[in-house]
């Protein structure tokens, strides 16, 4: 068999004129019996990379996919093109399953879809050993990565294929492409001899934008009304409750919004999904439970109202926009609470220390993307190991953000954290520390007598918003950390050099000066003095905190 017959399958079965990107090379390699690892962005056209070889080669191609809910659709779409496809999963009755098995053994199937948990059963392996197989396609292969964002235990069992079917070519495909995931999936699926096909992960038609969150629903509504009225979009929220509330709020404003999360009844979910796929202009408000394997070409925007847990997740979710190649928007609103909340979720989650460390690394990369002063696309592609030039198309390229030397305000903040601990013997969350810095007389603060503190009001020259921005950026850069149930602020690794005046720190955006600048000891000299004076204290706090961390098993931030 050769590429020409692959090309004729492309035309006669799928109705396409030409292969895209690496498709031709991958198809040729797999048709010839080689193993392959395929890294290609969402919408890049991974399916054809195994569907065509399965049609060209003798026997049945086994497609392993975690997406049971989509198997019926996939099989129907193939059948509509005259491909003999079927699936084996728990939705089939015993009789239906027996009929599919009979078709497989009689070599009457081109493609057979199943979930990994089905495949690794000894009964299934035995069945497959009696069938004629053209290939194994392992879709969403990043699910085998234990440190990734989509780990599925059953994927680990797929390593048996290497030994059980040494003569059947295997193709692993994913849209998650960090070098670490790539290495891990190659190892775990035992694809040592495979050829690797790594496509560029750039999605040039997607315009990335990350804005500061203040009234997320109003900001979202504004985005939809001014730029995407009547168009299809996906809005991602972290919690089910926020999905429900956001969908409701959009509907109240006349937008055709539907909700999707694991807490909704199955019928409602599939009805919503079907409407989203078939109709124009539906906005799907969803948790990340929605979207994997969804192939809707004309999604014009993907909005995040909460911070994704990793750049991989963000990239996959935003990648669902603009699969038709036309301009699309990836928009995210992000604020101080996102940082605190996500870190806290990790700290209080079950799971090994190593797992938590990994999750923290994922979030840190995500935060770095949010806070970057340079091109978002360059940053995203660099994360996936690709070099690129500034795109001219993202928010940072379109309107380069200004940096400002925030060393003095940051020293004030760090000093406030230390002084509150020393003079009050207490730690506080961001809100209260900002109140103290601004000398804000509210019942909450004055009750605890903070007005007597040396740091009271030293930051009154900056507005509350500017302070929140500072705290957010410092959290993102590990200068401070928010720990425990209440997210109290403590100093973190990068605080020392700034506090000691050895390093300056540049933050995003010039601050608007606050109206009520009633600085008490606001001069630069006074603060640097304060910071220098706090040095020994910083060292003491550091070792105390490390000890505390060891005892309580919390992260040793300071
Ligand atoms: P992935 O699995 O990589 O996200 P799909 O395999 O679902 O992507 O393909 C995405 C879309 O691109 C589908 O609508 C598919 O039909 C289309 N497509 C794939 N390859 C080609 C091609 N060579 N020519 C035209 N359209 C293609
Ligand atoms: Mg796919
Ligand atoms: Zn850019």
From TrEMBL:
Q: What class of enzyme is it?
A: isomerase
User: Which positions fall inside the Helicase ATP-binding domain?
Assistant: 27-195
- Which InterPro entries does the annotation name? DEAD/DEAH_box_helicase_dom (IPR011545), DNA_helicase_ATP-dep_RecQ (IPR004589), DNA_helicase_ATP-dep_RecQ_bac (IPR006293), Helicase_ATP-bd (IPR014001), Helicase_C-like (IPR001650), HRDC-like_sf (IPR010997), HRDC_dom (IPR002121), HRDC_dom_sf (IPR044876)
**Ranges where the Helicase C-terminal domain occurs:** 216-367
Per its Swiss-Prot or TrEMBL entry, what cofactor is needed?
Answer: Mg(2+); Zn(2+)
Kindly state which reaction or reactions the protein catalyses. Answer: Couples ATP hydrolysis with the unwinding of duplex DNA by translocating in the 3'-5' direction
Q: Which domain of life is it from?
A: Bacteria
Write out the entry's keywords from A to Z: ATP-binding, DNA damage, DNA recombination, DNA repair, DNA-binding, Helicase, Hydrolase, Isomerase, Metal-binding, Nucleotide-binding, Zinc
Q: Its Enzyme Commission number?
A: 5.6.2.4
Q: State if DNA-binding is listed as a keyword.
A: yes
Q: Name one GO molecular function term.
A: helicase activity
SMART domains per the UniProt record, alphabetical: DEXDc, HELICc, HRDC, RQC
Does the record bear Hydrolase in its keywords?
yes
Family from the record: Belongs to the helicase family. RecQ subfamily.
Stated name of the protein: DNA helicase RecQ
- Species name for this entry? Brevibacterium daeguense
Query: What gene makes this protein?
Result: recQ
């Amino acid at each position: 068999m050769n590429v020409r017959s692959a090309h004729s399958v492309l035309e006669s079965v799928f109705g396409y004129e030409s292969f895209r990107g690496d498709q031709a090379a991958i198809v040729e390699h797999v048709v010839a019996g080689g193993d392959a690892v395929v890294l290609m962005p969402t919408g890049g056209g991974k399916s054809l990379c195994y569907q065509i070889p399965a049609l060209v080669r003798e026997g049945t191609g086994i497609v392993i996919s975690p997406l049971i809910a989509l198997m019926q659709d996939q099989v129907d779409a193939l059948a509509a093109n005259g491909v003999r496809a079927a699936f084996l999963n728990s939705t089939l009755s015993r009789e239906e399953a027996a009929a599919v098995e009979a078709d497989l053994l009689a070599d009457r199937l081109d493609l057979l879809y199943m979930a990994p948990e089905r495949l690794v059963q000894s009964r299934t392996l035995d069945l497959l050993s009696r069938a004629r197989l053209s290939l194994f396609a392992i879709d969403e292969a990043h699910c085998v990565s234990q440190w990734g964002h989509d780990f599925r235990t059953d994927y680990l069992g797929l390593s048996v294929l290497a030994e059980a079917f040494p003569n059947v070519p295997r193709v692993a495909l994913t849209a998650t492409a960090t070098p670490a995931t790539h290495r891990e999936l190659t190892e775990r699926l035992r694809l040592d001899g495979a050829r690797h096909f790594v496509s560029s992960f750039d999605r040039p038609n997607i315009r990335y934008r990350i804005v500061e969150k203040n009234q997320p629903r109003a900001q979202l509504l504004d985005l939809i009304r001014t730029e995407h009225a009547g168009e299809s979009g996906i809005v991602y929220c972290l919690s089910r409750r926020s999905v429900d509330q956001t969908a409701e709020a959009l509907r109240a404003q006349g937008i055709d919004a539907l909700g999707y999360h694991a807490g909704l009844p199955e019928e409602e979910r599939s009805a919503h999904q079907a409407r989203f796929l078939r109709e124009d202009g539906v906005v799907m408000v969803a948790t990340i439970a929605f979207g994997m394997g969804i192939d809707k070409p004309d999604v014009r925007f993907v909005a995040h109202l909460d911070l994704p847990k990793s750049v991989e997740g963000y990239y996959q979710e935003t990648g669902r926009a603009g699969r038709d190649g036309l301009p699309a928007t990836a928009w995210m609103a992000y604020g101080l609470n996102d940082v605190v909340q996500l870190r806290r979720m990790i700290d209080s989650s079950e799971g090994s220390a190593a797992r938590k460390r990994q999750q923290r690394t994922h979030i840190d990369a995500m935060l770095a993307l949010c806070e970057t002063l340079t091109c978002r696309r360059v940053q995203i592609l660099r994360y996936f190991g690709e070099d690129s030039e500034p795109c001219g198309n993202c928010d940072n390229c379109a309107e380069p953000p200004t940096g400002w030397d925030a060393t003095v305000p940051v020293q004030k903040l760090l000093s406030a954290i230390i002084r509150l601990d020393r003079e009050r013997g207490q730690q506080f969350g961001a809100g209260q520390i900002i109140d103290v810095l601004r000398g804000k007389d509210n019942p909450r603060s004055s009750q605890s007598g903070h007005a007597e503190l040396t740091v009271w009001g030293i930051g009154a020259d900056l507005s509350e918003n500017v302070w929140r921005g500072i705290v957010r950026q410092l959290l993102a850069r590990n200068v401070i950390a928010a720990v425990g149930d209440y997210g109290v602020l403590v100093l973190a690794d990068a605080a020392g050099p700034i506090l000691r005046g050895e390093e300056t720190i540049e933050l995003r955006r010039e601050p608007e000066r606050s109206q009520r600048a009633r600085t008490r000891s606001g001069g630069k000299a006074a603060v640097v003095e304060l910071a220098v004076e706090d040095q020994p204290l910083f060292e003491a706090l550091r070792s105390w905190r490390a000890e505390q961390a060891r005892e309580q098993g919390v992260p040793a931030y300071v």
